[in-house]
Structure prediction request, 225 residues.
Amino acid sequence: MLQVDAFAWPAALATTTPRIDAELDAVAGVLVEPGTCRPSVVAMVGSATHAGCTTLLLGAARRLAQRGASVVLVDADETKPELSSQLGLLPSLGWEDVAAGRQPLAEVLIESIEDRLTLLPLCRPKQLAEQASAPVAAANLARAMTTLRQTYDLVLVDLGAPGGWVTGALDETIDVTVLVHNVGRAAADDLRSASQQLAARHIACAGVIENFTPVGDRASYRRAA
Prediction:
């Protein structure tokens, strides 16, 4: 796979404090806590756009990697995939190329040596949308997720806001989801709707992480349930 010396972390995570680290440790614990058997594939879903799902996923992943866990990040945000840009990367290949059979999985993964984290980027979501219904593409996606599950301790999937074809393509590969709800930016109805969409897809939801961070401020999270 492609290797880089280190990821360029977003400003919200570039400088942390003991309090922020403690909050992210709590979130990291939520990701590996659900159920009696530790899940291998955990997706984070925002109750609405701008819930802070991506930033929270990145912060928790870094804390897990610092504990020694091998973690791979999968960008599956169909409306605005930004894991790559948040980490200072501009990849030309994404998992849409894996789905189409143009590239093997190993050629698309990006590993940070210093951070001990791996990224599976999504570059062209519309292209992947056109392929998703094809049996070959669905089989390629399922095979790729199985490989990630067997290779890494934890697969963290950024689904963005719920609903849409990308979520459907990964339904059967996700063990559990965690909802992220920005209390100041989203209504209770958004949280309820997101929960109902996950239930309709028969995707288990382990609970809700409430985000109290106004735009531009430092992170503050609380596990709600």
Summary: The CA atoms of residues 59 and 225 lie 20 Å apart. The domain at 39-223 is CATH 3.40.50.300 (Rossmann fold). Residues 216-225 have pLDDT under 50 and may be disordered.
